[in-house]
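Bug report (template v2)

What were you trying to do?
Predict the complex of my protein with zinc ion.

What happened?
Run completed; filing so the output is reviewed.

Input:
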Amino acid sequence: MSEPFSTPRIIGHYQGPEPGPLVIAIGGLHGNEPAGVQALERLFELLEEEPQINPGFSFRGELIALRGNLAALGQGVRFIDQDLNRIWNPERIDALQAARSIPFEEDDANSEEEELLQLLAAIEIAIEESQPERIVFLDIHTTTAQGGIFTITGDDNFSLQIGTELYAPVIKGMLEGIKYTALHYFQSDRFGKNIEVAALCFEAGQHNEPESVDRALAATINLLRAVGCVQNADVRTLHDELLQRYAATLPVMTQLSYVHHITAADEFKMHPGYLNFQAIKSGEELATDRNGPILAPQSGYLLMPLYQQLGDEGFFIVQDFSLGVAY
Ligand SMILES: [Zn+2]
């Protein structure tokens, strides 16, 4: 078993003695969301302790955990130049990587593009070394509003199946509402057609709630169990119950049905007090912008109402979805 090691970018890289998937986890793609980073740091402490308290412990596969937006994390802001979770554009990445391969060639990468290239370099090296048959990507976030504990996955069965095992509501179809997120990138064939890839995003709660760190840790351990890296009895925390108790009152699976896109010029202002998964009625006034009131175009549950200055989406609406229902 290799010794865990860390750098400013790499929280830890754990290689188990037995074969298994390569799990790539990122915290802090948004610099004002440090909970994911803290959860992954604690996970590596737990993995270090585990063999001492649990002599039968054996890790299958490999786990690499990365800090997302280092510059923005340092300043505690969502981003410096551009949202790091909206720029995973394969064409732009190819162009930047090509420019970087030419000595002394200058390029116009901004702060987040620089972060993206460094993240991809770490990810590509890990894949190259590990030669995995399966990659599981986990991207950990938090939200401005309270109550935002949920999992976003692609619509592929591998991702959906893992998603339901994190003990949080799963939201389908989010990738259709936005573009160029890390999840989109991992869902494509970028790492080769022979590698099966699952990609999930876990929203751990409000940015500054201490419980968001606990929930992110619990969800990450649940994911490691779901994909067979650790067994049920391994790496036990008391946070599982926290997650399950919370999720018990929320819809199990929903599907994105509406996105309210905004620009800074809109002067969008969400009405105060809205929570994630709050039931809303069609026609309800949710917000205002420079053109007047903004009414809910449909009934459903509200998701990620925007209560911060920076953002490209004012709110999302999701509706109940159950597997097996034709759509
Ligand atoms: Zn985020």
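What did the reviewer find?
The chain has nine helices and 14 strands. The radius of gyration is 20 Å.
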